[in-house]
Write a sequence for this structure.
């Protein structure tokens, strides 16, 4: 975390720093529910897909909504996002079914599920570890997490401890009941593995998953590999939650240096609405506080749109604002469009223009690349 920054320099109000840091492997996007985490994580993933070889976005939020955001059904396995060649998405089931943990037979999974009631969190830890094992074996350049709301977010960092507890529980079970269990299972006449053998297998499994989680957690604490992007809205509760989140991240030694403030209403767009004018004043108060509190963060403001941000095209357009500070279109540039308030039409026009610009840029770059390859 030793970054030498000119004290006078204001940090760029964009997420360009995340795109530029090509060593990043794990990018978390988190904050309270409803502030726009999914929208922001999807937008960021869309932008990353433009500069990294392959990107996977994983939702660990019980309220899955990658499918809603991209308007495409995803599952617990990565699938290619429509309209992309290198962006994949998957939604992890937050209520794990341990009988599905790979390497354990159904019966054992069930047994583990039973003992898990006596070790709080072990089921979640196991299923997270299983996902991470799977993800690590895949070859994505970077992985974006659309995380569960604050509070649950960092529980995963305690998973090695949870698994440690699970291991000692299993060992003590084995010591006290091992012989008896094999007797019982013989009595049940299943002809399956004896109780002791079963516990041994599970010990091995939990041990292996614990190693995965430990390895992953040490990567999470490496700021070359991992960063956490906080998403919030300019309101009191959200400011408060963000501060808590940032403190928690620091405690767990996880790098965070970007705050995305979503749903910002820009004064240019108030028009004659008294309600909007009041909202702008309220938001401004909290924006000022964000700027005061987080001088050493990149603070990125995203505009509140009139419509939801859904579908790949809407996300692509919206994602532009992560890189270019949003400028509410000034009235005089509206060439007779006459919308001094900058309503949704001018906004859509502006987005279209930006999309067009990016498309042209991509075409130019592709032509350059082709020429470079040819020469
Ligand atoms: N800046 C915005 N302007 C308009 N709608 C937005 C904006 N950001 C998010 N939304 C919409 O708000 C809803 C909640 O956003 P979402 O990203 O799913 O929040 P979260 O994941 O934090 O619960 C979605 O329908 C989304 O399209
Ligand atoms: Mg969400």
């Amino acid at each position: 975390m030793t970054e030498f920054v000119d004290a006078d320099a204001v940090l760029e109000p964009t997420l360009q720093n995340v795109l530029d840091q090509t060593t990043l492997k794990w990018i978390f996007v988190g904050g309270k529910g409803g502030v726009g985490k999914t929208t922001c994580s999807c937008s960021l993933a869309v932008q990353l897909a433009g500069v990294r070889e392959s990107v996977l976005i994983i939702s660990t939020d019980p309220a899955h909504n990658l499918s809603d955001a991209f308007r495409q059904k995803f599952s617990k396995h990565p699938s290619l996002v429509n309209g992309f060649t290198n962006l994949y998405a998957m939604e992890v089931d937050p209520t794990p079914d341990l009988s599905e943990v790979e390497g354990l037979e159904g019966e054992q999974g069930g047994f583990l599920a039973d003992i898990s009631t006596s070790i709080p969190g072990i089921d979640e830890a196991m299923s997270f570890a299983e996902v991470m094992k799977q993800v690590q074996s895949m070859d994505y350049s970077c992985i974006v997490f659309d995380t569960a709301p604050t509070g649950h977010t960092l529980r995963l960092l305690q998973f090695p401890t949870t698994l440690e507890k699970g291991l000692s529980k299993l060992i003590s079970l084995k010591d006290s009941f091992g012989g008896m269990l094999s007797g019982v299972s013989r009595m049940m006449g299943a002809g399956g593995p004896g109780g002791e053998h079963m516990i041994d297998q599970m010990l091995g499994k939990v041990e292996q998953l614990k190693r995965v989680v430990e390895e992953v957690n040490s990567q999470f604490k490496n700021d070359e590999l991992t960063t956490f992007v906080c998403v919030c809205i300019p309101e009191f509760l959200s400011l408060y939650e963000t501060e808590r989140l940032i403190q928690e991240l620091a405690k767990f030694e996880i790098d965070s240096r970007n705050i995305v403030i979503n749903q910002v209403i820009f004064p240019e767009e108030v028009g004659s609405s008294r309600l909007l004018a009041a909202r702008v004043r309220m938001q401004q108060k909290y924006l000022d506080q964000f700027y005061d509190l987080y001088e050493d963060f990149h603070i990125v403001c995203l505009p509140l749109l009139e419509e939801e941000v859904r579908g790949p095209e809407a996300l692509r357009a919206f994602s532009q604002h992560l890189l270019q500070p949003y400028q509410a279109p000034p009235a005089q540039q509206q060439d007779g469009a006459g919308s001094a308030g900058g309503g949704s039409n001018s906004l859509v026009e502006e987005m279209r223009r930006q999309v067009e610009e990016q498309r042209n840029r991509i075409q130019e770059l592709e032509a350059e690349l082709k020429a470079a390859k040819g020469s």
